[in-house]
């Protein structure tokens, strides 16, 4: 890690990376970035349209390209990554080299409740799935992804995270 503190949140879709990321950035008074939003801005396309028009492979290329840019910027920041980000193209190594990674480890049932709400049905991976199918999909994603998420430097388990707790974990990490 260099002189800047880059806090990068990782975890399954619906674990609260974007929501908690914003809260944490406010508490730390750091700029907040959402990797999906940076991709949409850079390539002028919505995430579901990238998946539909070009496929996941192209999305993962663009995701890594955007991640490298934000991780090499000369500033402290909070970054909410996308759920799949740590699991492709050495992205977890890129994150850990420049940043303080934090895994939001939320019970699958809780995430499933959140993602079943109609307003969240724009997420390409969960489109048109019912509650039971969402839980199964999350289980299968976690089986594939936990190996990468577990490489995070800090792990927060539960549903509701406190910015104070994470800040004290970050201080411990920096001191070590
Ligand atoms: N701690 C929480 N308690 C209840 N709902 C939450 C919590 N954190 C996030 N949510 C809700 O869950 C959904 C997914 O959150 P989001 O931050 O977009 O997750 P991610 O970025 O990890 O996919 C959103 O509708 C958000 O309002
Ligand atoms: O888990 C994934 O592979 C994805 C998660 C999404 O981000 P969120 O985790 O913020 O939903 C987004 O990057 C894309 O739809 C792919
Ligand atoms: Mg998000």
Automatic annotation (TrEMBL):
<protein>
    <recommendedName>
        <fullName>Shikimate kinase</fullName>
        <ecNumber>2.7.1.71</ecNumber>
    </recommendedName>
</protein>
<dbReference type="GO" id="GO:0008652">
    <property type="term" value="P:amino acid biosynthetic process"/>
</dbReference>
<dbReference type="GO" id="GO:0009423">
    <property type="term" value="P:chorismate biosynthetic process"/>
</dbReference>
<keyword id="KW-0479">Metal-binding</keyword>
<keyword id="KW-0547">Nucleotide-binding</keyword>
<feature type="binding site">
    <location>
        <position position="18"/>
    </location>
    <ligand>
        <name>Mg(2+)</name>
    </ligand>
</feature>
<keyword id="KW-0460">Magnesium</keyword>
<dbReference type="GO" id="GO:0005829">
    <property type="term" value="C:cytosol"/>
</dbReference>
<comment type="subunit">
    <text>Monomer.</text>
</comment>
<feature type="binding site">
    <location>
        <position position="83"/>
    </location>
    <ligand>
        <name>substrate</name>
    </ligand>
</feature>
<dbReference type="GO" id="GO:0000287">
    <property type="term" value="F:magnesium ion binding"/>
</dbReference>
<feature type="binding site">
    <location>
        <position position="60"/>
    </location>
    <ligand>
        <name>substrate</name>
    </ligand>
</feature>
<keyword id="KW-0028">Amino-acid biosynthesis</keyword>
<keyword id="KW-0963">Cytoplasm</keyword>
<comment type="function">
    <text>Catalyzes the specific phosphorylation of the 3-hydroxyl group of shikimic acid using ATP as a cosubstrate.</text>
</comment>
<keyword id="KW-0418">Kinase</keyword>
<comment type="similarity">
    <text>Belongs to the shikimate kinase family.</text>
</comment>
<dbReference type="InterPro" id="IPR027417">
    <property type="entry name" value="P-loop_NTPase"/>
</dbReference>
<dbReference type="InterPro" id="IPR031322">
    <property type="entry name" value="Shikimate/glucono_kinase"/>
</dbReference>
<dbReference type="InterPro" id="IPR000623">
    <property type="entry name" value="Shikimate_kinase/TSH1"/>
</dbReference>
<dbReference type="GO" id="GO:0004765">
    <property type="term" value="F:shikimate kinase activity"/>
</dbReference>
<dbReference type="Pfam" id="PF01202">
    <property type="entry name" value="SKI"/>
</dbReference>
<dbReference type="GO" id="GO:0005524">
    <property type="term" value="F:ATP binding"/>
</dbReference>
<feature type="binding site">
    <location>
        <begin position="14"/>
        <end position="19"/>
    </location>
    <ligand>
        <name>ATP</name>
    </ligand>
</feature>
<feature type="binding site">
    <location>
        <position position="145"/>
    </location>
    <ligand>
        <name>substrate</name>
    </ligand>
</feature>
<keyword id="KW-0067">ATP-binding</keyword>
<feature type="binding site">
    <location>
        <position position="36"/>
    </location>
    <ligand>
        <name>substrate</name>
    </ligand>
</feature>
<keyword id="KW-0057">Aromatic amino acid biosynthesis</keyword>
<dbReference type="GO" id="GO:0009073">
    <property type="term" value="P:aromatic amino acid family biosynthetic process"/>
</dbReference>
<comment type="pathway">
    <text>Metabolic intermediate biosynthesis; chorismate biosynthesis; chorismate from D-erythrose 4-phosphate and phosphoenolpyruvate: step 5/7.</text>
</comment>
<feature type="binding site">
    <location>
        <position position="123"/>
    </location>
    <ligand>
        <name>ATP</name>
    </ligand>
</feature>
<keyword id="KW-0808">Transferase</keyword>
């Amino acid at each position: 890690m260099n002189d800047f503190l880059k806090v990068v949140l990782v975890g399954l879709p619906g674990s609260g990376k974007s929501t908690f990321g914003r809260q944490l950035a406010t508490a730390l008074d750091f700029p907040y970035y959402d990797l999906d939003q940076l991709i949409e801005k850079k390539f002028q396309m919505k995430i579901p349209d990238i998946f539909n028009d070009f496929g996941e492979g192209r999305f993962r290329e663009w995701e890594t390209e955007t991640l490298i840019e934000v991780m090499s910027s000369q500033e402290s920041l909070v970054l909410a990554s996308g759920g799949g980000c740590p699991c492709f193209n050495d992205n977890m190594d890129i994150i850990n080299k420049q940043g303080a990674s934090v895994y939001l480890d939320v019970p699958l049932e809780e995430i499933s409740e959140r993602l079943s709400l109609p307003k969240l049905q724009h997420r390409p991976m969960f489109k048109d799935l019912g509650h039971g199918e969402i839980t199964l999909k999350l289980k299968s994603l976690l089986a594939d992804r936990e190996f990468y998420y577990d490489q995070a430097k800090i792990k927060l388990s539960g549903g509701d995270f406190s910015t104070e707790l994470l800040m004290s974990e970050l201080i411990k990490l920096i001191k070590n």
